[in-house]
Amino acid sequence: MTSTTVAKQAKLNDLVKRLIEIRQALAESDAALEPGLGRIHPTYLKSARNLAHYIALRHRDIRPLQQELAELGLSSLGRAEAHVMATLDAVLAAVHGLAGRSWQHSPRGLDFLEGNKLLREHTETLLGPNPAKRAVRIMVTLPGEAASDYQLVRELVAHGMNCMRVNCSYDDRQAWVAMAEHLKRARRELGKECRLSMDLAGPKLRVGPLEPGPEVVKVRPVRDVTGMVLKPAKIRLIPQAHATAVANGAEPLPIPIAAGDLALLRAGEKIEFNDARGSSRQIVVTGRTGEYVETECVRTSYLASGMELRCKGGSDGIMRVGRLPALEQPIVLRKGDTVVLSDQLPLAGGSELDEDGGVLRPPTITCTIPEILGDIKAGERVWFDDGKIGGVIKKVADSEATIEITHAAAAGSKLRSNKGINLPDSDLSIASLTTKDLEDLQVVAEQADIGMSFVRTPADVEALEAHLARLGRPDIGIMLKIETRQAFDNLPFLVLAAMRRAAAGVMIARGDLAVECGYERMAEIQEEILWVSEAAHIPVVWATQVLESLAKKGLPSRAEITDAAMGERAECVMLNKGPHLCDAVAALDDILQRMQGHQIKKSAMLRKLKRW
């Protein structure tokens, strides 16, 4: 036997030894899982074992081993997710054969076909049967107008929507039921299957109300590039009693009148006033709509509460503008600034300054869940407004947290009320299910599967299951939204908790998750979620900003097309609302059909190329 042969034999023997050690670790993971298997749903028993095998495999760095296997022309274990033990056994058998050794073993776990079959079955249980021409489903988040627009729901189903999602953070129970009824009707008329999922809102940690600014609205005509008026600003004068929320930019802009008789105004009359800047302005009456008076203005004007309007014409007299909504005063934050997060109810405000302009007290904000101030600690990070503004907690005392801003735009970033707050390093004690969620659940559980927001621990999943059991709906599927760092860290345990049901899935909520874990980590995080979920044979929804420009503006970016194509590795891709939603569904349907001929999960499919 030559020295080369001896060296090769030694290398193969060492390879066998290391593979056997890995197999033993996988077998030990079975033993560790055994006590909890009694709570796993029968359809997920084999999947739970495979998940344990996968986690055990990934507890070590096998990259050098993978390279050695690839050099021998063997599987590198890189596509083992759905059938870990079967892949390892196949590799072991091949290496034993190359080493000229026999190998006897007791088969464990799933074979190659069964793992993929279980994933397909579990996907159908939660998301419905395969669409006719593709394997990946399309989920669509409905806008509020779908409650009164049956045709929108029908068109979405006709264009390829396979699962309709209702976000219970918006609208009300009556609207949700109306959307569900529209879906039932569309399914009957089109003869198509389409599932329904409703997301519970969960606790929403947001910036509280800010100090109100002046009660002013702006009206502005449309001008061309030379400043010529193309379209006058339209203003509708309404009785104070009919006043509702007045929005800047509304067309026509409703302005309540607190004093003066609108009934006396006639078309052609002029109304003069000095606007909030003291500029002399004029509006002209153009007609009436019932009790309302329609007017036009050809110059930019700022109308304020209590402003005097002087009528010039047959109805000479004085009118007075009623109460307008106060403009919000955003807080401008720059890198190095300090902001105080308080649990006090008074409205937040800007900085308090001394006579020389020095800061006596930094700006103060409140949050919608003040209880979190008992959980956060110095040194932990805080992100505002989807990660646009970031900071570090410097001190927590007297029901206040002092935060130093570390990330903001060079010219400063505006922080407004109702913007999200993320605390990726904090262990928050707030419950995943709010009082509102529990009230909504009574309606939602009658209509749809459940999307669970802000899930972080297995106890959160158990709490939802307990409430569903009390409602007599243990059969409902649940979709775990992975949107916090803690949820990602606990992912295998969350998945095992979800496996207690016959229908379960995971949604990669990439928006919040990117803020929580860092945008630079998002690519690897979504891959890891896909791998763990495939090992558990649990369907994944690829969500957040998929074809967002197409849905909202009618034209996708190049990067969005690539992102949508990569969503083919999930079992479902979610689109969000927008005026061009049906176009986005049709485009996604086409992209997914094209991609499935090239790739399934991580495996490249070497179909015959039509070019070259």
Extract low-pLDDT stretches: none
Binned strand content: 15-25%
**Mean pLDDT, all residues:** 90
User: How far from one another are the termini?
Assistant: 48 Å
Radius of gyration over all CA atoms, rounded:
31 Å
The global form is elongated
Physical arrangement of strands within the biggest beta sheet: 1-2-3-25-26-27-28-29
Helix/strand/pairing class, anyone?
alpha/beta
Q: Count the beta strands.
A: 31
Query: How helical, in percent, are the residues?
Result: 25-40%
Task: Indicate the topology.
Blueprint: H1 3-33, H2 45-57, H3 63-71, H4 84-98, H5 112-127, E1 137-141, H6 150-159, E2 163-167, H7 173-190, E3 195-199, E4 216-219, E5 222-223, E6 229-231, E7 233-239, E8 253-259, E9 270-274, E10 280-289, E11 292-297, E12 301-304, E13 308-312, E14 317-321, E15 331-333, E16 338-342, E17 352-353, E18 359-361, E19 364-366, E20 381-384, E21 389-397, E22 400-407, E23 413-415, E24 421-422, H8 435-447, E25 449-452, H9 458-470, E26 478-482, H10 485-489, H11 491-498, E27 504-509, H12 510-517, H13 522-535, E28 540-543, H14 548-553, H15 558-566, E29 572-575, H16 581-595, E30 599-600, E31 603-604
Parallel strand pairs: 1-2, 1-29, 2-3, 3-25, 7-8, 16-19, 25-26, 26-27, 27-28, 28-29
Antiparallel strand pairs: 4-12, 5-6, 7-11, 8-14, 9-10, 9-13, 10-11, 13-14, 15-23, 16-22, 17-18, 20-21, 20-24, 21-22, 30-31
